[in-house]
Every structure is written in structure tokens, then in C-alpha cells.
Amino acid sequence: MSALAEPGALRKRLLQALKRPVTYALLLIGAYAAVHRLPIQDGWTAGLDDAIFSIAVALVGLAAIRAYGVVLAWYSTESALHAETGVDREFGPLLNKLGTIFVVVAATIAVLQHFKVNVQSLVVSLGVGSLAVGLAAQDTLVRLLSRLPESVYFLFFFHLTIQPSPPIARIPGSVFH
Known about the structure:
Blueprint: H1 9-37, H2 42-78, H3 80-84, H4 87-114, H5 120-136, H6 138-146, H7 148-156, H8 158-161
Helix pairs in contact: 1-2, 2-4
């Protein structure tokens, strides 16, 4: 039984992973309030606002990556698919990297859009690129997505339907002793 199997272990790991980003986010809220109370020129205030926004997006991205990693680690060690097929060994690292890339790209697009950079062509390019990858890996994606309903069932409902059985008594001289 892994460390993530204990009751409330997922919640503890999530809180531990998100503690530092949330602390820094609260510090940024205070810095934002302090910047707007300072008697400085509007150009400086706008520059500091841009810096605070960029740091806030980085913190939200870091928190999302950490939370995704914790949930993925929990799912890959505690799901019934882990015991049945070992699918977590094959797709776990791939899903972890894809999730990280997705968060980094989304954060980068948010920051670029804040600085009034036209990101529409980038978003369209990413859409066309993902379509090309999807068509190239169609068989793999079909196999992966065919297991999705079963995975969702095991993720949310499996622990509600299976009750642990009492231990088998060890009787001296029996076959099981």
C-alpha cells in the first residue's frame, strides 16, 4: 500500500504542493495594493502592474502544474487500472509532460496577450498542429480514449462500491497456513 492510499493523503499532498504558491500569491495581492497606494507616476505604476501580473501568472501556472502532478501520481498509484494493466507506466509520463506543456503554453499566451501581442495566429497554429498530431496518432488515441470512461468510473465510484473484506483466519494445519 503506497503513501497516497491513506485516507486524506491526496488532500494533504495537494495542500503541501499548493502552500508555497498560495503564500506568494497573497504576497502579490499585498504588493499590488501597496503599488497603487504609492505616490509615483502612472508609468511606474503600469510597469509594476505588468510585472505583478507576469509573476501572478507564473504562480498560477506553478500551482496548476503541482496540483496536476499530485493528482496524476495519486491516480496512477491508486486506480484499478494500475493493478490491471499497468497503463500508468506507459501513459503516466506522457500525460505528465503534456499537462506541463499545456499549462506553460496557456500561461505564455496569457502573458503575451496582456502585453498586447497578437496571439491569434499562435493559437491557430497550435490548433492545426494538434490536429496533425491527432491524425498521426489516431490509433493510439482511440485506444487511450476508449479506456477513459472506465478510468473515470474507477476514479470516482470504485472506492464507493468495494468494501474491504475481513482478514482470513489462519488455522493451524489448513491449506492456507
